[in-house]
Amino acid sequence: MLRSWWLAGVAAACGVFVAATQRSPWVAVVEVLIFAALAVLLSPMVFPRSVTAEQAQERSARDGRPIVYWRPGCQYCLRLRRRLGGRAGQVHWVDIWRDPAGAAAVRAITGGDETVPTVVAGGEAVVNPKPDWLLQRLTP
User: Any idea what the CATH number is for the domain that residue 78 is in?
Assistant: First the structure.
């Protein structure tokens, strides 16, 4: 669990440190707000609730929804999540830092690497797909 939050924690701590070194309280407040926004973006809070790889595979077999393997702090995962917008709930999200089976599934797909986002849709696995590729595979 802590592994998923460490980047957000570092961003928040840096914000506090940088703000503490400022002479102007207004500049300090602005810096804290900037670092707090960065911490939120790097946290797991931006993504829909993650499930285990086993749950995602079972659910995907039933409903046909794609599976996205991701990890907090990944800029490409964040880009994919942002482009999906409100349709992100139509995807099963697996945080590979919280689920060892998810990390193993990604390694099996990528040939030993934990490159994310890795998306499995309709039996086809794609590493770091363009967001439009995934949007085309979502049901309207």
Answer: 3.40.30.10
d(CA 26, CA 31) in angstroms, rounded, equals 9
Two tokens, residue 39 = 């911490």
The per-residue pLDDT for 88 is 86
Which residue reads 């409100």 in tokens? 86
Range of the domain at 71: 48-137
Task: Please give the residue that has the higher pLDDT: either 8 or 36.
Answer: 36
Same domain, 38 and 91: no
Enter the pTM of the model: 0.74
Both 34 and 57 in a single domain?
Answer: no
Cβ-based neighbours of 71, under 8 Å, separated by 6 or more? 4, 77, 95, 96, 97, 114, 116
Q: Are 84 and 131 in contact (CB under 8 A)?
A: yes
- Residue reference for tokens 């207004």: 26
